[in-house]
Amino acid sequence: MNTTILALDLGTHTGWALLHLDGTITSGTAHFKPQRFEGGGMRFLRFKRWLAELLSASGHINAVFFEEVRRHAGVDAAHAYGGFMGHLTAWCEHHNIPYQGVPVGTIKKHATGKGNAGKDDMILSVRQRGHAPTDDNEADALALLHWAVQTQEV
């Protein structure tokens, strides 16, 4: 494999998984909860700085895949997701990195066989692939990364 792929489950607790050139995978969850005395846009500035650090640490990113959410439980979650997605896509455009949103059901179906799989099913699915996610956000990003590697020609 000679491709570096970043998979993201966008949100206040952003799950991420990065396939490196040597075939190894690193993953985790980055937290962008607004701090007590911050303005509303600071979480997005911290998100962009975090993306820049990922790019710098990896040397190059060939493609970004993100979980495309079409329905949110609440208005605040929808606004936060839209902000993260807007900043991500602008950042990718700025760095000439191709990006693609992938519907949640597509990721769940690929990972578990069920398009409506729950959080525990998703965590179990990536554990069976040899990963140890700390939460469902990281598990979703890992599942998305495996989907991208197996179905996309990157």
Structure commentary:
The relative contact order is 0.21. The protein has one domain (5-151): Ribonuclease H-like superfamily/Ribonuclease H (Nucleotidyltransferase, domain 5, 2-Layer Sandwich). The protein has helices at 42-58, 75-94, 104-112, 119-127, 136-151, and strands at residues 5-9, 13-19, 25-31, 63-68, 99-103. It has 154 residues and is of the alpha/beta class. The N and C termini lie close together (10 Å).
Short précis:
With 154 residues, this protein is of the alpha/beta class.
Give a topology summary:
Blueprint: E1 5-9, E2 13-19, E3 25-31, H1 42-58, E4 63-68, H2 75-94, E5 99-103, H3 104-112, H4 119-127, H5 136-151
Helix pairs in contact: 1-2, 3-5, 4-5
Spatial ordering of strands, largest sheet: 3-2-1-4-5
CATH C-level class: Alpha Beta
Given helix and strand content, the structural type is alpha/beta
Strand fraction equals 15-25%
* Broad shape: globular
CATH superfamily membership: Ribonuclease H-like superfamily/Ribonuclease H
Largest sheet: 5 strands, mixed
Mean pLDDT: 94
CATH topology: Nucleotidyltransferase, domain 5
Helical run tally: 5
InterPro entries: RNaseH-like_sf, RNaseH_sf
Protein name: Holliday junction resolvasome RuvABC endonuclease subunit
Organism: Variovorax defluvii
